[in-house]
Amino acid sequence: MSARRSGPSPAGSDLRPPDRTSALRPGRTGRVWRGAFVLGGLFSDAARYVFASAVVIGLGLAMGYRPGGGAPGVLAAVVLVIAFGLALSLLWAAVALLVRDPAVVVSIANAALMPLSFASNIFVRPTGMPGWLRAFVRVNPLSHLADAARDLMNGTGSAAGPVTWSLAATAVLVLVCAPLTLRLYARNR
Question: What single-letter DSSP state applies at residue 25?
């Protein structure tokens, strides 16, 4: 295994085969729906996200966190976060089909997600931020997702707004990126 592939990589970074002359290219060995390879990547990502969520929640419980929303709130938060993550996976799969090198996909994903993560309310409360940054945090989809997950897990009863925004962002990503990814995948095969 190369050093490039030993770390985490965004979804779809391996959709483009490295050797275009291979006799065993996906979609060329038998009658398989071409979208199955994209869907298989999403299922793989979903399994990773479920495992990571279980580890994080397990560690939180071991350290003393007791979610006020109980098991239903935790499950709803995990499902919401995984749905958003899978929608982002479609975006990175489309990017992977546009560029040749998986390392470039990782770089693009990091360049996009780092500012979105740090310019959100995931790590700090927006009350101490400058006004211009607070305005961006209010429209950042990651802030809405974090608020929704917190509200669902803590059972605060104020999750409706953030959940709606998170579901809307997820739906927009899926509606835009799913057809684009499938079209790019069909064109590249």
Answer: -
